[in-house]
């Protein structure tokens, strides 16, 4: 499968705030149709990165390109091609949902088609029941939906969401995840969160920031940095020195001292476990049982937060 | 891009129109000025038989219309900070500022949009207040040129006050503090030459800085380019500083 060309390219992006380097040398690509989760502890630089992506804040070094055009040399791009939901939705509580979305659409350059655009986004964000209610009277879940609606009313190419599920109850969180997942159709979505299940549920890729640096980027379906882990039961018993002969295994540990057929092994980076099966059969050890073992994203996240960053993989 | 400023201005109008605050403020201002107007009119009617015997006697324009508009200029110093206090500080407080900052609209356009929104409301108040003496046109002779000149002066005066109000609103996230600082700043500009005037000095640099020096000629029916320029410069400088402040807010706005 060929990858879509990157919609947004961040090249060596840095930002200094109050004399402190908040984001350092950030290189990242975001593709249309994907949801990229930005993870990091508080102060890691997530919100600053999102503000730069949203066109609120200019980088002090490096470039951000959207569809090949520099975001800060073409400020009109932020108006039409980017939608941004900050950590606290930027709502005007004295207006009704419809009035507010009408203004947001016009602010983002919609003209003649504004009526249809507002109707469309109200349906998409399931706001039909509250469209004529004052925003100030809405529940937290609905306010968050209105926040997302303002970010997508103009159908931007890039949607930037800063902690979209913060403060929501479990039911609202589940609904919000569904909404975010749906946004990726035709758009590129970047979201920041502290909630790891949000990333696994909604994101195709994850990027982890620590102290302003990008420490890790990978698909959420394969969140490994150092190679796939697998549990294997061979037909013939094996010794430690047998594993290097396979040339694709970087480490092996017996799981049962009394059973030399049962091992936990780590493969070289980017290898899949079917390569292990093939190598075992080729070397005559056979395969009785083989199971991939995912390194939990949380483990990687905690390791990075503890200052043991794995290498960047994508 | 060019439509962003009028859009923001119209939106500010809409936000004012749906809040009780703007209506109550307008009602209080009109009631207060109507009361002053009726008192002045009654006094004029009592005096008018005596005035008839004087050569070049002051008319209703001198004794009712202009004093009313002059009094309104003093009231503007109090109400304009209340109108502008939420312009940017209110958005910061409700975390709504990123909506404008992320819309690819330049800082100057945002600030000018907020300024025009408040100016529209205050101009409406000026028109409502001026309509009271203008209503006398149906029954007596009015010096319309002088009244319209005074109105022009009030608009320019309000423009400077609003720009200062928007600047103060950009400096703090507390609307009340924004109103207090705008009131303090405009009061300072109003009395900056009080000491000099007490000593009989009225033609120095310090006099030139004072707001009353430049509004008073309009009440006398004079439109001097130096006075117009003064108000425009104060407006432009205050808005430029507000735009500069907004640039700084981009790094902290949430």
Defining traits:
heterodimer; A: about 325 residues; alpha/beta; 6-stranded mixed β-sheet; 4-stranded antiparallel β-sheet; 9 helices; about 30% helix; about 30% strand; B: about 250 residues; mainly alpha; 12 helices; globular
What this model shows, in words?
The complex is a heterodimer of chains A (314) and B (254). Chain A has 314 residues and is α/β, with parallel strands linked by helices. Chain A is 29% helix and 28% strand. Chain A has nine helices and 14 strands. The longest helix of chain A has 14 residues. Chain A is elongated, with a radius of gyration of 23 Å. Chain B is mainly α. Helices cover 78% and strands 0% of the residues of chain B. Chain B contains twelve helices and no strands. In chain B, helix 2 packs antiparallel against helix 3, helix 3 packs parallel to helix 7 and helix 11 packs across helix 12. The longest helix of chain B is centred in the N-terminal third of the chain and has 32 residues. The chains are: A alpha/beta (314), B mainly alpha (254). The interface between A and B is medium-sized, with 33 and 28 residues.
List the helices and strands and how they pair.
The complex is a heterodimer of chains A (314) and B (254).
Chain A: E1 6-17, E2 20-31, E3 35-39, H1 46-54, E4 61-66, E5 69-70, H2 76-81, E6 82-85, H3 97-107, H4 114-124, H5 140-152, E7 158-162, H6 170-183, E8 188-193, H7 196-202, E9 205-210, E10 213-219, E11 229-233, E12 249-254, E13 262-267, H8 273-282, E14 289-293, H9 297-305
Parallel strand pairs in A: 3-8, 3-9, 6-7, 7-8
Antiparallel strand pairs in A: 1-2, 1-4, 4-5, 9-10, 11-13, 11-14, 12-13
Chain B: H1 4-17, H2 20-51, H3 60-84, H4 89-93, H5 97-101, H6 107-134, H7 144-171, H8 175-191, H9 194-198, H10 205-209, H11 211-219, H12 225-249
Over all CA atoms, what is the radius of gyration of chain B? 20 Å
Helix percent band of chain A: 25-40%
Averaging pLDDT over every residue of chain B, what do you get? 92
Tally the beta strands of chain A: 14
| Number of helices in the DSSP assignment of chain A | 9
The SSE string of chain B, one letter per element, is HHHHHHHHHHHH
Structural class of chain A: alpha/beta
What fraction of residues of chain B sit in β-strands?
Answer: under 5%
